């Protein structure tokens, strides 16, 4: 019996001694879509670099200092000198080899694909599947029996693409993986231990990823940011840093795609990309504070440790205590240009993806997310705290925008509201809503009662049936 996915076909293992997860077709299709765009982007960057180098060369001088009349055209010599090799791929945990075979068969311009596993049964299965898929797969995919951590450590900066898709946590592989990726290459990494990353086992999360999760509605996005922070912390030990291009939560796991570069000077700015999260235990208001800060009087722009927490001892909205989480990655987790370009490519070749509906929906949402609004609030959670009726999402979006802030949804939660508005503005808008839609009396010691006991500082009026707000004055926001 065989299993077919994309252009690849592998032998079915009814005992599942070599692990195969059918549900991960979404993961594999998205990875192929990202990898296709990476190959194009890599060539585009190379051509731009080549063009820049060519522009720097005086017309009378050849690239190697010789006379062009005797050595041939300058462009030809320069291309030979700077030829771009096909990207080399490492699938560090290959199992049946399905993913590696699909990369070889479905991604044009891909080079050698190393299918690595430390299980002999898996490698034998991988060999059979490679042979079964014909000449192209056999010429590109190379099975190899080895421990992924040791193999990656002994092949520094060798692979343009490294794929980590473990069963569970990738934490044990990250330090060697960030060293294995070539400059400008891409590391694709999954994590399926969502109970740990989403706050079910905070102490285990800290031991694996060096960060405390907070159990909020935004827990799946926080899981992504914890993984990214962990990857960056491993990279900076080797004077390298990450640039996220796509980071998604789907099904039962998270998947991140990051590019890796080397720069000792850029690494010094890493503390500005990390933040601690302070979440109120009463009303779930949250605040972020960067680990590092820039001294405006120092022209070198070297980050220094940040000052004391900006949050008070008690929440200014409901009087609750704050619990601290993190540090997490607080820089953008997506590159919007990548997301829109990949989405366009997917739509143009929709027949190539079995999971087209799923991955196109996710990338559509990703391309519309606010880049500089870490985490999010849930409208249903806010209304549950106040025990009030829910405004529609359109109404709330209108209110935020009329207050002068930006807002978007999130791919991680259909009820999410990502906004750059502070929590004080959000609660003020809801106080205005409750004035129009009164709630039943409730005990004064509840967080919602304490929030509603304050008069709204942001004055709003109903403009239309969509409950749009118009600010009669600038918001007076307490810090």
Automatic annotation (TrEMBL):
Any GO molecular function: tRNA binding
Gene3D superfamilies documented for this protein: N2,N2-dimethylguanosine tRNA methyltransferase, C-terminal domain, Vaccinia Virus protein VP39
SUPFAM superfamilies referenced in this protein's UniProt entry, alphabetically: S-adenosyl-L-methionine-dependent methyltransferases
A GO biological process held by the record: tRNA N2-guanine methylation
Region described as Disordered: spans on this chain: 49-78
Listed NCBIfam families: TRM1
PROSITE patterns, sorted: SAM_MT_TRM1
Official protein name in the record: tRNA (guanine(26)-N(2))-dimethyltransferase
Enzyme Commission number(s): 2.1.1.216
Family note: Belongs to the class I-like SAM-binding methyltransferase superfamily. Trm1 family.
Keywords, in A-Z order: Metal-binding, Methyltransferase, RNA-binding, S-adenosyl-L-methionine, Transferase, tRNA processing, tRNA-binding, Zinc
Keyword tRNA-binding attached: yes
Keyword Methyltransferase included in the entry's annotation: yes
Biased composition range(s): Basic and acidic residues: 49-65
Record function comment: Dimethylates a single guanine residue at position 26 of most tRNAs using S-adenosyl-L-methionine as donor of the methyl groups.
InterPro entries: SAM-dependent_MTases_sf, Trm1, tRNA_met_Trm1_C
Highest rank taxon of the organism: Eukaryota
The organism's taxonomic lineage, starting at the top: Eukaryota, Viridiplantae, Streptophyta, Embryophyta, Tracheophyta
């Amino acid at each position: 019996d065989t299993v077919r996915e994309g252009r690849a076909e592998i032998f079915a293992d009814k005992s599942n001694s070599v692990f195969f997860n059918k549900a991960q077709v979404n993961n594999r299709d998205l990875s192929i879509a990202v990898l296709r765009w990476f190959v194009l982007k890599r060539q585009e960057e190379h051509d731009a670099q080549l063009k820049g180098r060519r522009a720097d060369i005086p017309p009378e001088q050849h690239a190697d200092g010789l006379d062009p009349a005797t050595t041939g055209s300058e462009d030809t010599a320069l291309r030979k000198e700077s030829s771009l090799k096909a990207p080399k791929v490492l699938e560090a945990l290959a199992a049946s080899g399905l993913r590696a075979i699909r990369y070889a068969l479905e991604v044009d311009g891909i080079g050698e694909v190393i299918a690595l596993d430390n299980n002999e049964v898996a490698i034998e299965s991988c060999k059979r599947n490679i042979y079964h898929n014909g000449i192209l797969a056999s010429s590109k995919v190379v099975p190899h029996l080895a421990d992924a951590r040791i193999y990656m450590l002994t092949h520094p900066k060798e692979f343009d693409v490294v794929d980590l898709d473990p069963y569970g946590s990738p934490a044990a592989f990250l330090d060697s993986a960030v060293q294995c990726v070539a400059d400008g290459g891409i590391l694709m990494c999954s994590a399926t231990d969502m109970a740990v990353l989403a706050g079910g086992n905070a102490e285990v999360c800290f031991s694996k990823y060096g960060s405390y999760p907070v159990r909020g509605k935004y827990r799946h996005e926080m899981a992504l940011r914890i993984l990214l922070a962990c990857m960056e912390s491993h990279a900076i030990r080797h004077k390298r840093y990450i640039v996220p291009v796509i980071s998604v939560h789907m099904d039962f796991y998270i998947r991140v795609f990051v590019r890796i570069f080397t720069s000792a000077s850029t690494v010094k700015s890493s503390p500005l990309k990390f933040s601690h999260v302070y979440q109120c235990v009463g009303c779930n208001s949250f605040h972020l504070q960067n680990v590092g800060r820039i001294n405006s009087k120092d022209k070198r722009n070297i980050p220094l440790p940040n000052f004391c927490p900006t949050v008070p001892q008690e929440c200014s909205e409901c009087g609750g205590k704050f619990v601290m989480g993190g540090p997490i990655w607080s820089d953008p987790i997506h590159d919007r240009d990548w997301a829109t370009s990949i989405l366009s490519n997917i739509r143009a070749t929709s027949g190539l993806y079995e999971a087209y509906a799923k991955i196109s929906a996710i990338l559509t949402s990703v391309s519309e997310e606010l880049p500089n609004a870490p985490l999010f609030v849930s409208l249903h959670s806010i209304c549950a705290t106040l025990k009030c009726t829910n405004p529609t999402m359109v109404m709330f979006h209108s209110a935020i925008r009329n207050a002068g802030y930006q807002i978007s949804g999130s791919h991680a939660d259909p009820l999410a509201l990502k906004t750059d508005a502070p929590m004080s503005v959000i609660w003020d808008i809801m106080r205005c809503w409750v004035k129009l839609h009164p709630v039943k009396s409730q005990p004064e010691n509840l967080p919602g009662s304490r929030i509603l006991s304050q008069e709204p500082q942001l004055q709003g009026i109903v403009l239309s049936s969509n409950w749009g707000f118009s600010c009669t004055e600038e918001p007076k926001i307490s810090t």
